[in-house]
Amino acid sequence: MAVLAVLLCLSVIGIEWRFRSHSQDGNSLAGLTLAKQHLTNGRLDLAEVALRAYLQRNPNSTVALEELRWLYFNQFRTREIEEILEARLVRFPEDAATAIELLNCEFRKQLPREGIGYLREVDRKQPRQAAVQLALGYCDWQIGELDAAQTAFQAALSQRSDHRETRYVVAEFLLENGEVEAANELVTTTAEQDDDRALFLRSLISERQGDVESAYQAIEHAVSKRPGELRYVHREGLLLQRLGRTGEATQRLRRANELEGFQSELSEIVLRGQHAEPTPELCERLANLLHEFGRDVQSRTWRQLGSRLTALKRRT
Amino acid sequence: MRVGARMMMVVVGMAALLGITFWRLSQDHIEPTVSDNTTAQRRPLVRWPSVETTDPAADSPIRFTSVGKAAGVEFTYYGGPSPQHFMTEQNGGGVALLDFDQDGWLDIFFTNGSHFERPADRVGPTASQRLYRNVTGAGDGDLRFEDVTATAGLIAFGFGMGCAAGDYDNDGFPDLFVCEYGRQRLWHNRGDGTFDDDTPSARVTDSQWSTSAAFGDLDGDGNLDLYVANYVKWSPDEPPCYTQHQPPVHISCGPLGRQGQPDRLYHNRGDGSFDEVGESAGIAIPHGKGLDVVLGDFDGDRKLDIYVANDTVENFLFLNRGGMTFEEVGVSRGVAVSAEGTAMSGMGIACGDYNGDGHFDLYVTNFENEVNSFFENLGNATFRPVNSQLGLNSASRPMLGFGAVLVDFDLDHYPDLFVANGHVWDLRPLAMGHAYEMPAQILRNNRGTRFQDVSRTTGDYFRQKWLGRAVATGDLDNDGDTDLVVTQLGQPHSVLRNDSRRANGSIRLRLVGTTASRDALGARVEYRVAGHAWTLLVPAGGGYQASSDIRLLLAIDNDKTVDELRVVWSTGREEGRSPINSGSETIFVEGSNPDAAVGEAR
Questions:
Q1: Is B393 near chain A, with CB under 8 Å?
Q2: Whole-angstrom Cα distance, residue A175 to residue A154?
Q3: Is B385 left (phi over 0), alpha (psi -120 to 50) or beta?
Q4: How far is B385 from chain A, CA to nearest CA, in Å?
Q5: Where are the alpha helices (DSSP H) in B301-425?
Q6: A176 Cβ under 8 Å from any chain B Cβ
Q7: Which of A27, B119, B340, B540 has the largest CB neighbor count within 10 A?
Q8: How many whole angstroms separate alpha carbon A278 and alpha carbon A274?
Q9: pLDDT 10s digits, B447-470
């Protein structure tokens, strides 16, 4: 435990040191101050722009990263948090704090019922922010307030009709409400035809339209993009089954079940907080589990951390 | 209850975060501008779901009236929720609808609970399980029950959970099996209005935490076997559980991280006793955390299969391979996990043919923030999740569902859904909008295409909030439609009389086996009216800790006849009869129409 604390401190201090020695200048600090001011005032859209710009210039800033992470957390933008943290891990492969945060963001997600209060408050003070509308729509949808969700989604989409995240979330909402064609319109006009989430949605839409073969092709493509994504693999199995390819279906469904087991194990580790106080054995286990999901960057970090802990243990 | 447990862990970080964020928001207001950094050229906006000009609920014919108190059923489950938050307090009580005295009127049995610090047996008879005899027939037509627990010899105490009714000795009188924490009991109906505790002599003693059970003739020998779902290992000596808030909220412990308990399968020897054959039958899976079980022929081979809802681990589908052996195929048949591939917090199961295709489908209730699962049976016990396309997700996501049934309330041939909801944890002190008591729901089946939540217009009961648990169905007043009995925690159980506007009349059908088990539990019934075949299942389990009326209601126009009726008995024998004229009740005795056997015995 003490060993890990030292490692974590070293990791964070090292990063901050790099940040201070190489990147800090007057303009940068002004950018961060501005971002924080926007956050304080509930201007999440401007805060996001400022934080991203600041991180562009100061990629090592843990402060800016932390602010952006919370900003996305509050807006249910898990994929974007992951992308940012993974990018950081590529840059700093020994950054244990980021590896821990990555697990947190995946298994300790915001709950709509608990997050909506904050979003409503932001919306009251600073109405009509597209990202806030999208998050509000999502929360209202999840807690069963469908009329409010539709209003918020309409507002979000009218402001950012080409915004990828917005289109995906709204398309899923429309599908659930039986509006298959409307959902289809959103997904087919998405520029990123190669995006796994778009492919997943296209698969759902094709199945609703009765085209199981196309639904399968879309999900197969999505799986090739993210082979460790449980819901894709499971869906692939279900569609293979409908196509009468029973043997392949069973194989995919069993693989999905295997992934589900790994996911449950990871979830339990994170929810118990064990990942924040890991032993060398747990690091190894986390590395193996993450490898199963294709998260090789994270896996490598945990494996390295395990080795460092083992080496430190031997020395002490 | 994985998601719920996850939620608890998350809240800590959130509380701190929200504190910071709200502080930030208290600063000066700045005039808003629209961020357009991601806005490109405008495209035509999508066509939104049309704003409902007519409320679908307003057109719903389904109505229920709560009549429990007026009918003399005033019973509140003992033992929970209490300030101690023992884990046994979550489940609530079970209910069985059975005609124990065979007078043609359906009676009600409730299990009852206990408390580790104030045991039920020290409280006295009010904390006993309860039997209410239906005396409507002797009155003016209004539903009326009287408490006959003491005269029936059923005063007993324990941590009662679910129950199952079934005539295991084929003597014409349904017996009762009661699941309890740490014990289970078999009550033999002596046929004179009294019951004996035959647990030891029947050799069904067990000390696990049993939750739900179902009788069914699983090997086709004419005797009802018994499946018992068991939950998890837990002891009141274990440390209490709390949320991670500051200050923490005391809650009952969940199943995550606890060892599951394997289910039991009791083979009926035909002499009043059973053999436990779970291991050899292949159903004793150690990690199972069972909360409900349903028996039915899901693959069309004329043998009863078993479906089990498990809490936080995958659900089981045991296909009957004959000779009292089963193969667990839930994963490969697409009915073990959610549409997303995740194991859910399976609570209750509803079973029926929702779209008239002749196959039995499955609906499973889950935890709050999970959606309830609807698995469409594609014909050979291969399933696909259709809850999203049936419009069921939005209705279930904010709810923690327990008992559910799939029954045709308005006699339009398409079974509707009733779902009892209610949380297991009282998180209201957090002031974060968490619901504790929740409304029950009626989701009307729109001709097998989508379900619509019509609860709002279904009656006062659906405008109130409850800690809903078990639900059993039956025609309590013999008026030709399906009534409901719902158990709740903290408030008296409810008797809901069906006052729906009917699309058709009905025939009540009672099956009596002769070589097959006398109670035709799990039997498949197909009837043809005006060229269309409809398929029903004699209930065997389901509803979460419940046991329903074994008589079926066949929807049919009053001036029409059932052109053809086919029954698949537990022996595998298929038997037909035709025609059947509309009327109040038809009793179909196996073999009474010797020329009508149309299928092979297995």
A1: yes
A2: 15
A3: beta
A4: 9
A5: 393-396
A6: yes
A7: B540
A8: 6
A9: 999 999 999 999 999 999 999 999
